Amino acid sequence: MKEFYQMTASEAMQKVNGGVDPLSEQQIRENQKRYGENRLTEEGKKPVWRIFLEQYQDFLVLILIAAAVVSGLLGEMESAVVIFVVITVNAILGTVQTIKAEQSLDSLKEMSAPRAKVFRGKEVVKIPAHQVTVGDVVMLEAGDLVPADGRILECASLKAEESALTGESLGVEKTEEKIETEVPLADRRNMVFSGSFISYGRGSFLVTAIGMDTEIGKIASMLAHTAEKKTPLQISLDRFGRMLSVLILLFCAVLFGISLVRGESWGEAFLFATALAVAAIPEALSSIVTIVLAFGTRKMAKEHAIIRKLQAVEGLGSVSVICSDKTGTLTQNKMTVVSYYLEGRQVPADEITMENAAEKQLFVHSVLCNDATHENGQEIGDPTEIALLNLGEQKGEKVRNLRDSYPRLAELPFDSERKMMSTLHAIKGKTVLLTKGAVDVLLERTTFVQKEGGSFPVTEEDREEIKRQNQQYSQQGLRVLAFAYKWKDDKEQGAITADEEHSFVFLGMIAMMDPPRKESRQAVEACIRAGMKPVMITGDHKITAAAIAKQIGILKEETEVCEGAAIENMSEEELQEFVEHISVYARVSPEHKIRIVRAWQQKGHIVAMTGDGVNDAPALKQADIGIAMGITGTETAKHAASMVLSDDNFATIIKAVEHGRNVYQNIKHAIRFLLSGNFAGILTVLYASVAGLSVPFAPVHLLFINLLTDSLPAIALGLEPHENSVMQKPPRPAGEDILTRKMLLGIGLDGLCIGITTIASYYIGLGKGPAAASTMAFGTLCISRLLYGFHCKSEQAVLFTKKFLNNKYLNGAFLIGLGLITTVLTHPAFRNVLQVTPLGSFELAMVYILPACNLLFLELVMKWIRR
Ligand code: ATP
Prior knowledge:
Layout: H1 9-17, H2 25-35, H3 48-54, H4 59-73, H5 77-111, E1 115-120, E2 123-128, E3 137-141, E4 149-161, H6 163-166, E5 172-173, E6 191-192, E7 197-209, H7 215-220, H8 232-261, H9 266-280, H10 285-302, E8 305-307, H11 311-316, E9 321-324, E10 336-342, E11 345-348, H12 357-368, E12 373-375, E13 378-380, H13 383-394, H14 399-405, E14 408-415, E15 420-427, E16 430-437, H15 439-444, E17 446-451, E18 454-457, H16 460-475, E19 479-488, E20 504-513, H17 520-529, E21 533-537, H18 542-552, E22 560-563, H19 572-579, E23 582-586, H20 590-602, E24 607-611, H21 617-622, E25 625-629, H22 635-640, E26 643-645, H23 650-690, H24 699-709, H25 711-718, H26 741-766, H27 770-791, H28 808-826, H29 841-866
Parallel strand pairs: 9-21, 9-24, 17-20, 21-23, 22-23, 24-25, 25-26
Antiparallel strand pairs: 1-2, 1-3, 3-7, 4-5, 4-6, 4-7, 8-26, 10-11, 10-20, 12-13, 14-15, 15-16, 16-19, 17-18, 19-20
Helix pairs in contact: 3-5, 4-5, 4-9, 5-10, 5-24, 8-9, 8-10, 9-24, 10-23, 16-18, 17-23, 19-20, 23-25, 23-26, 23-27, 24-27, 25-28, 26-27, 26-29, 27-28, 27-29
The protein binds adenosine-5'-triphosphate.
């Protein structure tokens, strides 16, 4: 049987769709039903029961299970049951949190899922790639992700990067010609394959296979499953947690020995040592980070910053340089033509008339050498090109008619290296090459200039005049495109090559306005205030870039503008010195971007960089935080980025940095909460042991605190409402460990205060016997830790301020914890199970008063000292 690559395009169309026209809506729906969604089967989507069981895989939970079994064997069935209940409740909490975190990460993935341009009816529409089905005709251009396998129908200079499939990283040139013989996959040049990227050119293809039937689908199950990568913060916390666990286990072993020497049964001693280990080891550190990061990303997505890699959230907090594109990111990307320049005169947009032959010629040229479409109110394409079409709309010209009258015979697409594009048309029986692009680039390739009465060899004065006019436009912040053409005598209609783009007749220029976004100026100010350097990197003209940069505050007296070419011959060291002084780079090519990012990184900075084009991918990967544009960005750029801006707006980056800093700060607060509380527990036990007192806690007490009343406030602290004040500080130093010496000292001191409070309570209870003392110590430690949550909300004192109660999650966690402990302390049903003794009213009151005093002391005295 013939394969699709061995058929002509129309044979393939005939075979798949039974005709040569694209499918109707109805047929598409039928095919979607028949073939299912265009997705690779998601590997390892875990069922709920697996997630639940995984909660038991934790080393500490296994020890606890062992402890429960030991208790049971020793005849202490109640303890055994309590331990099992506590572990189960803990596992349920863990399962719910894991599922919620996964859900928010999944919805995030959906938001940055690739899209494809397909024919629906007679129009091209953008749809999510997973809706593409067999029989669809998909349009491709540079930067697109190929959404399915298929046979190319037509193409112009189309190149695809198929490394995911073949390992070959160079672009493969595509063709529409049929291949007669049998060839291997890599040589099927008239086919495109799902998972590859279009690196150059334009084309369309007929979908022949989707989802698991595609070539990549066939090997998907063979591809090694890549585990979810941990973020640097999680890795550092895991390392710290492991170290701490070893220390704690050693400590518990010593305590176990002491208990035995004191004459306790080994079963009891083992149970206690185990419970203390569980209470002290901060096993939840890394999972709290995951949960808080996952929830943080949900908030960020609502504000148009879609995180693709979780690392980016914490990385954003230490960004110190933000390199941003101009067009569309700092400006509105709503371009409007404001002026034509031709035959040595300027014509404002409202005076342009199609009755004037030269003006009409420039307009027709701008419509033909143009890939955008504008039909039924739907604009598809580059805003620069759409602006050119919109002018026609105003003047009552039908773009489609013009394009039908002078069809495109061949083309050489725009790319940001050449900074121009060319198309070939038959006009009045002759073949003409139409080109548009950057003024400086086209002017270099010009030999004639069109003036009234014909075209004349270009003189030095003509060049000067064009440059002067370009400069005048640029100084107003306008974006200028030049238009030039040349007749081809040979009537040759084949492909165009880049070496033909010379000896042009210069036709004229079109100036467009792209005003800065309203919020750009404020965002730039906020960026500078937060200790970050904004840098504009644009492909546009130096003077236009400078004018816009001045308007939004990026260009200051002490900083300069330079052109990309200026850095070409600099050594790495020279460039590192140079970048400090430059805040605007113009006429930059993608390679320059990489060098600029690298130079800043070598100076120890964390760099965020925006990008949209197909060639921006390497720079986005090089940057610490690669940011792709959601609206105008290519799929290639999105794929390489760690964050996507769904509104393409610079101000969103600054908001994302604020989120990143806040999330990091909240994680820090949650960690502080967990570690100080655990430390207080250890201190109390250690003190009792050194002072020769009876053991202050029963094992179930520690389990109750650690597994039931502790994890909710910790997560709640991670979800603390964000503070604006984080943007008044400089970025966090790159590579700084989350557990700084200052933080560890704070944790130690806070733990000491909570420990002293617990011991004081223990002594008060001792008057009524060791059982009452233990109950009081348990109640006091539990409530002190619950209240301590409020202390951890901020570095500033929050008591008696509005901020004290502004976290509904923390308030809820506090009330649940307080309700639980109060019930345990007062309800007779729990006496045996949780080993508590009824307390007198004075003792009971002290269990609440002492923790309150502790909070007062921490808030008023400790925060003051720390400040
Ligand atoms: P930024 O990098 O800030 O997004 P940019 O859009 O100007 O700026 P490029 O897209 O690399 O950057 O464009 C570089 C230059 O190429 C522009 O200044 C313009 O002169 C020219 N140009 C842009 N778009 C087109 C196009 N569609 N056709 C021909 N020339 C273009």
